[in-house]
Each structure stands twice: as structure tokens, then as C-alpha cells.
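Box 3.1 A note on notation
Throughout this textbook, protein chains are presented in two layers. The first layer is the amino acid sequence; the second is a C-alpha cell string describing backbone geometry. Keep the layers aligned when reading.
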Amino acid sequence: MSQINLPQRSQMASFERFDGEMIVVKSDEAVMRVLNPVGAFIFERLDGRMNLNDLVQAITETFAVSPEVATADLERFIEDLSRRGLLAADRV
């Protein structure tokens, strides 16, 4: 499991839903990420209050995916957001 226990969106990241997807922009850099519905579902919940196990449970309750697949995909997604600077630096 990722070393980020309580992932939280960066305060520099703004997001907007558009046509079933979400566009995330980091305002202090030229960083943009388009998220599919599952990514948008996760990103909206990155408030620093849900741990990774809570997120996996929410994903599996909402989408047709096993806990193993949800865990692996969530770890990759969190790592990608971290690399792009879209997570709060003090949570990384």
C-alpha cells in the first residue's frame, strides 16, 4: 500500500466536472490531468479524512471492481497525482 495514508488534494489544485469527466489543474504550474469517472470519484474524496482502505471500500461499493484491483489501481493513481504535484505536499 502507498506510503500516503491520508491523501489530500493540493490547495493549488482546482477541478471541474465536464461531460462525465473531471479536469484537474494545478494553478501554480502548467499541470493538467483529465480524470475518468472513477478517478473523479476518488479525487473528490481526497480531503485528508479517508485513508486508503476507506477509499478502496468506497470504490468497490460504487464500481464493479474487486478489492485487489481497486487497491492496485488506487496506489498507481495516488502515485501519479503525487508525481504531478496534485496532492498536498505535507501528506506525501
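The mean pLDDT is 88. The helical segments are 37-44, 52-62, 67-83.
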